[in-house]
Structure formats: C-alpha cells, structure tokens
UniProtKB/TrEMBL annotation:
Annotated PPR repeat ranges: 113-147, 216-250, 251-285, 286-320, 321-356, 357-391, 430-464
Organism of this sequence: Vigna radiata var. radiata
Protein's name according to its UniProt entry: Pentatricopeptide repeat-containing protein At3g04130, mitochondrial isoform X1
This protein's UniProt keywords: Repeat
Keyword Oxidoreductase: no
GO MF, one example: acyltransferase activity, transferring groups other than amino-acyl groups
Family in the record: Belongs to the PPR family. P subfamily.
Keyword Repeat found: yes
InterPro entries the UniProt entry points to: PPR_rpt, Thiolase-like, Thiolase_AS, Thiolase_C, Thiolase_CS, TPR-like_helical_dom_sf
Lineage summary: Eukaryota, Viridiplantae, Streptophyta, Embryophyta, Tracheophyta
One Pfam family matching this protein: PPR_2
Length: 615
C-alpha cells in the first residue's frame, strides 16, 4: 500500500477570513458608497470589525447569536451600503450571509432594501440551498418585495439545480406574488429552461401558454437557441418556419444562431446555404455572423476557405470591426501568412477606421513568437506599450516567455519581461503564469528560481497544480534540495481532498459534485480515473451518482459497495481507502489513478484522488 501516493485536492475554503477588503470595496464601485453618513473608510472599518467577530466557519445560528450578543456590533450604525458589502463578502458562505442578513433585519432602525433581498436570494440559489430560498421568497412575498428581477434569479437557480418544476411553479404563482403573466414573464421562463437544456419541457409549456399569451419574435429566438444548444439543429430550422407562421420575421440573430451550430458541427455546406437564404430573405448576415464563420473555418484548419470570408463580407456591404480583424489576423497567422497579417494590421485596419484592442496585439505577438520571429514580436509589444488604445496584460507576455525558454534566453530577457510585467505595468502573476514559468525553469535547469516562484505562489494563496508540484519535486530531488522537496511533498499531501455542499433536501448526491471538483483540481479529467470507490450509503445514491457522471460501471465498486461489504459508522473513509488502495495495488501499473467518495449527512459530499507512487 506504501507504493500508492495520496494527494488531497483543496477546492477552497469558502469561509476563509483572509481577504483583501479594500480590494473588495473598490471592486464594488462607488454606487455602494453613496450613504452620506458613512465614508468608504468607515465602511471598511465596520466591515473589518464584523468579519472578525463572525470568525471562521459560522453556522447561520452561530453568526446570528454572535452579532446579536456583542456590544461592539450593536454600536455599529447599519446602512444599506454596509449590508450590501457584508453580503458580497459572504457570497460564498451562505450560512454566515444568512446570519448577517437576519441580524441586520432584526435591528429596529434598519429595513432591508429589495436589492439586499435579491442578493440573499442569489447567494442561497447559487449555493443550492433551495428550501431556505423558498422560505426567503415567501417572506418577500408577504412584504410585497418580489420583483421580476427576483423571479429571474429564483427561476435561474432552481433550473440550474435541476429543479425545473419549481421554476414553473414560480411562474404559475406570479399573480400571488403581485406580478403579471405576460409575454415578458413567459419568455423569461422559456429562456431560463432553454439555457439549461430543458428545451422539450419548455416546448410543452409553450404549447399550453400560447393560447393565452401570444408569442413574439424573441420567443422563437429563445427556442432556436435552445434547440441549437442541445444540437438539434433541424428543430431550430423548423422553428424559423413556425416563426413565420405566427407573423414574426426571422432576424439576423435567428439565422446566426443556427449558423453557429452548423459551424460547431463542421457542416459548412449548410452554413453557405443559410447565408444565401438570409440574403434572399432580405436579412443579410452581420459582422458577428461572418466572424463566427471565419473562426470556425480556421479552427477546422480550412485556412484558404476562411480567408475568402473577408471578401464575401466586403461584397455584401458589411463593415468589419475589431473582433473580425482579430479573427482575420489569427487565421492569417495559422496559415503562415505573416506579412499579410502585418499588412492587415498596419494598413487595412487604419483604412477601415478600426482601432486595435489588447487581443489584437496579443494575437500578433503570439503569431510572431510561434513562427520564431521574436524580434517582430517585441516590436509589436513596443508599439502596444505606446498605444493610446490599450496596454499589455498577462496574456501578452505568455508567448514571449515561451520564446525565452525555447531559445534559452532565460537569465537576461526573461528577467526583463518579468520586470516589465510586475514593475512597469503592475500585473499580478496568476496561476497560469506561475505554471508556465515553473515548468519552463525546471526544463531549463533553473531549479532554484522555480522553487522561489513556487514559494511565492504559496505565500499569495495560489495553489499550484499537482503536475507542477510533481515536476518541481523531481527536479529538486535531483539537485539534492531536500528541504525544498519536503516542503513540496507536504503541500502535495494536502492537495487532493474536495468537500462540497448540496441542498440538504437531496442529501446523498454529494459524490456527484465532489468527484468532479477533486478530479479537476488534480489537473485530471474523469476519463483519466481507472478506479472508483463510491460509498454505497443507499443503492439509489450510488446509481444516481454513476448516471450523473456517466461513469463506466466496470470501474466502480469492483469488489462490491457498502451494501455488500458493510457501512461501518465512523469508519467509512478508512474502509473505502483500504478497499481502493488494495485493488490499485493488485492491478499494478494498469491502474494509475483512483478516487474515493462518499455522501455525508446534511447535504455534504467528499472525494479524494489517489495516484500510484511508481509512475
């Protein structure tokens, strides 16, 4: 069993108190600081005090009790701005957020605004605490605070949680909520269902409602988008004809949605047929349509065909915009036509009166770096730095960093690039930039530098991917950097556990959420996993999780689950780990990755990823 290396993937502690409050306040914008009695500094100070009082990991009841029984909290003057900031602060911690919300509502001198209620609705819905959401909606109904904005949030969250029937009930109860059933509310319901791929259900509802509410063009565009989203483009095309039957004229959005679907399928014959149909119907394609087509052709490596799109667009009288030119430049780069790309950038874009943006420059820099023309890439960077339109971002420098590693110019040029990023443009290194640097430095025999960046990541609470840790660990061991190796191994041991929460009303489905979270954080996909051990608390729970994730039954509970082997109280994890690791050991190197998962009472779920240590 010692040959199997355990790694726990941290998905993130939603109640972590370490937070940059000043950045939070500035990110909310000045609209939250309009209260004439509280300055921004006061709001930040009150926010700090209340956050410290709440502490870490408070339940709803604990948070409420703490705030109600603290003299310091009692002395803080509440304002809508402060409550909004608190709810924003705890947007990923519904229990603390609800405790704060209840505490504020209990103050005699304060009354929640409709915006505060909507924020709380959104928090509960996003965290899928649906019963609490229902209770809050009922409370809002009694106070006459429900708006269509509230309804939109509630519907979206119910449908997102797979509870589309509840979203329909909300629509049915609109009049009881003080709202009207009309074309706007019907379209809202249909759009919410279609965006989450419940298109057939939306269609059935529409067939019932159309006798009472006449559809409009937007109604049919919703269905066109929905059918395309589930790859049933024939139904989308039929909806165009149905639309005409109701006296609604298809617009460029109607056709372009179907064209996008054909592009995704690689069916460009249908794309051109639909373009001709649009022209015949007096509804010519717009620049977005042409950009979609050219991008799809380039992605399919049909470069010559893609490069004919600009001429077709010009002949139709459609004017190019920045996004179109960005796609055009990308296509030219992929086709290896660098001089043509430079001509388009230097001549055609100014002639058309189109200004470049950051993506324009980034595309050119990436193109020149890919073709080992670093000098031209740096010339574009210099031009970008002097531009009135935009400045470099982190993505601007990634191709240049890769070029440094490829050419071996690490000590000089790479240092200059990083100095420009950090000191000149005050760009923060993100996970992708750190990953790129550490991997490149390891391959370039700059192990000490790579490890210093690794420590810098940890200090900034940026968790490196497991593969980054493994690569760096191998390098530091070769250099006999034993202390560094120990620090990396300590982190790796903490890198593979995922704990999630689901609606307590559907307790048991936790593994369906925890497994993807753990696997993703490991830098893997479900297809990489060779063996699963899912605790079989109930047969239905196991069956649901397997179907939800599309797991191969031949990989799951191969020696029987808890129904066969037993469900020891307080020792489920130990039983699952022992079963999984022994089976991984028995199968040898044919079984590299294994996952255990279990549901926990009150709606929790946990999962862990294991990897053999002999890879």
């Amino acid at each position: 069993m010692h040959s199997v290396l355990y790694r726990a993937i941290i998905v993130g502690d939603s109640r972590c108190i370490c937070y940059a409050y000043r950045h939070l306040c500035s990110s909310l914008g000045t609209r939250y600081f309009s209260h004439k009695e509280q300055s921004q500094e006061e709001l930040i100070r009150y926010l700090d005090i209340l956050t410290v009082k709440l502490g870490k990991g408070s339940s709803e009841e604990e948070a409420l009790h703490t705030l109600l029984n603290d003299e310091t909290c009692d002395a803080i003057p509440l304002s809508q701005n402060l409550v909004h900031l608190l709810l924003q602060r705890y947007k990923d911690d519904w229990q603390s957020a609800l405790g704060v919300f209840r505490w504020a509502g209990s103050q005699s001198s304060f009354r929640h605004s409709p915006e505060s209620y909507d924020m709380m609705v959104d928090i509960l819905g996003r965290m899928k605490v649906m019963q609490k959401l229902r209770d809050l909606l009922d409370e809002m109904r009694k106070s006459g605070l429900v708006t269509m904005n509230t309804v939109a949030k509630v519907m979206r969250r119910f449908v997102g949680a797979g509870q589309w029937v509840d979203a329909v009930k909300i629509f049915d109860d609109l009049q009881a909520l003080g709202l009207e059933k009309n074309i706007d509310s019907m379209n809202l319901l249909l759009d919410t269902l279609c965006k989450e791929k419940f298109v057939e259900q939306a269609r059935e509802i529409f067939l019932e409602l159309k006798q009472h509410i006449a559809p409009n063009a937007h109604t049919f565009n919703i269905f066109i988008h929905g059918w395309c989203k589930i790859c049933r483009v024939d139904e989308a095309h039929w909806t165009i004809e149905e639309m005409k039957g109701y006296g609604c004229r298809p617009c460029v959005i109607s056709y372009s949605t179907i064209i996008r679907c054909y592009c995704q399928e690689g069916n460009f014959i249908k794309v051109y047929e639909l373009l001709d149909e649009m022209q015949a119907q007096g509804c010519p394609a717009n620049v977005i349509t042409y950009t979609t087509i050219m991008s799809a052709l380039a992605k399919a490596e049909k470069f010559e065909e893609a490069l004919k799109v600009p001429e077709r667009m010009r002949s139709s009288g459609c004017r190019a915009d920045t996004l179109f030119f960005n796609s055009f430049l990308y296509t030219l780069g992929r086709a290896g036509r660098l001089d043509d790309a430079a001509y388009v950038f230097n001549v055609e874009m100014p002639k058309a009166g189109v200004s470049p943006n950051t993506s324009t420059y980034n595309s050119l820099i990436s193109m020149f770096c890919y073709h080992a023309q670093e000098k031209r890439a740096f010339e574009i960077l210099k031009e970008m730095e002097n531009s009135d339109y935009c400045k470099p971002d982190a993505q601007t420098y990634h191709p240049l960093i890769k070029s440094c590693f490829r050419s071996g110019k690490i000590d000089g040029v790479l240092n200059d690039i990083l100095n420009d990023m950090i000191k000149k443009y005050h760009l923060s290194l993100d996970l992708s930039t750190y990953t790129l640097l550490i991997h490149g430095l390891c391959r370039g025999d700059r192990c000490n530098w790579a490890f210093s960046l690794f420590e810098e990541m940890i200090d900034q609470d940026i968790i490196p991917r497991f593969r980054t840790c493994q690569l760096l660990l191998d390098e530091v061991k070769q250099k006999n950097m034993f202390q560094a190796a120990e620090k990396i191994e300590d982190l790796m041991k903490k890198l593979s556990f995922a704990a999630v929460g689901v609606d307590p009303a559907v307790m048991g489905v936790g593994p369906a959420a925890a497994i993807p979270a753990a696997v993703k954080s490991a830098g893997l996909e479900l297809g990489n996993i060779d063996l699963y051990e899912i605790n079989e608390a109930f047969a239905s729970q196991y069956v649901y999780c397997c179907k939800k994730l599309g797991l191969d039954p031949r990989k799951v509970n191969v020696n029987g689950g808890a129904i066969a082997l037993g469900h020891p109280l307080g020792a489920t994890g130990a039983r699952c780990v022992a079963t999984l690791l022994n089976e991984m050991k028995r199968r040898g190197r044919d079984c590299r990755y294994g996952v255990i998962s279990m549901c926990i009472g009150s709606g929790m779920g946990a999962a862990a990823v294991f990897e053999r240590g002999d890879y």
